[in-house]
Amino acid sequence: MNFTRFEHLNVACQDIDVTRNFYQTLFPDWYVRAEGSNNGDRWIHLGNDQFYLALNDCAGQKRVHQIYENIGISHVGFVIQDGEAMQKLLDKNGIEYYTMSVPETRYRIYVTDPDGNEIELVEYQPDYALK
Questions:
Q1: I want to staple 57 with a disulfide (CB 3.0 to 4.6 A). Which of 12, 16, 26, 76 is the partner?
Q2: Are strands 118-124 and 75-79 parallel, antiparallel or unpaired?
Q3: What does the alpha-carbon distance between residue 103 and residue 17 come to, in Å, rounded to a whole number?
Q4: What is the DSSP string of 52-116?
Q5: What is the dihedral of CA 37, 42, 46, 51, to 10 degrees?
Q6: What are phi and psi of 31, to 5 degrees?
Q7: Residues of the chain with CATH 3.10.180.10
Q8: Does domain 1-60 have CATH number 3.10.180.10?
Q9: Considering the domain 74-131 in this protein, what is its CATH number?
């Protein structure tokens, strides 16, 4: 009852600029909403008017969570408008991906960001009620 919307994800980055460039390649309409530093470590809020990624510069730290092998978030899903166009964008930029299919989606595209986080890009079927 109190929930109004999903606002942000906080992401630790090996190289904050590389991660920002990756997400701006996937979502060219995203912009830097805010940025600064905390105790010398850079942070960037990258997104749109509804949602953002809070990117944190954590150079030198190691990833300890392995997706689908440990307890924790295995992937984050983003709804996209055009799966075919997204695949062309990924191919053009040399970004590796794999796909899966289920009846309610036209496209389910999975990519891994520079920090090892898996992202699902979903285009739903036009008649799917919960799109």
A1: 16
A2: parallel
A3: 37
A4: EEEEEE-TTPPP---TTTSSS--EEEEE-S-HHHHHHHHHHTT---EEE--TTEEEEEEEE-TTS
A5: -60
A6: -135, 165
A7: 1-60, 74-131
A8: yes
A9: 3.10.180.10
> Full-prediction pTM beyond 0.85?
yes
Whether 23 contacts 113, CB under 8 Å: yes
Residue type, 7: E
Q: What is the pLDDT along the chain (131 residues), one digit of tens a residue?
A: 788 888 999 999 999 999 999 999 999 999 999 999 988 889 999 999 999 999 999 988 887 777 777 788 889 999 999 999 999 999 999 999 999 989 999 999 999 999 999 999 999 999 988 86
For residue 21, give the H/E element and its range: helix 16-26
Task: For residues 57 and 73, give the distance between their C-alpha atoms in angstroms, rounded to a whole number.
Answer: 20
Candidates 80, 76, 110; CA nearest to 96 is 110
For residue 108 the two structure tokens come to 């389910």
Cα 81 to Cα 25, 33, 87, 88, 108: the distances in Å are: 15, 23, 12, 13, 12
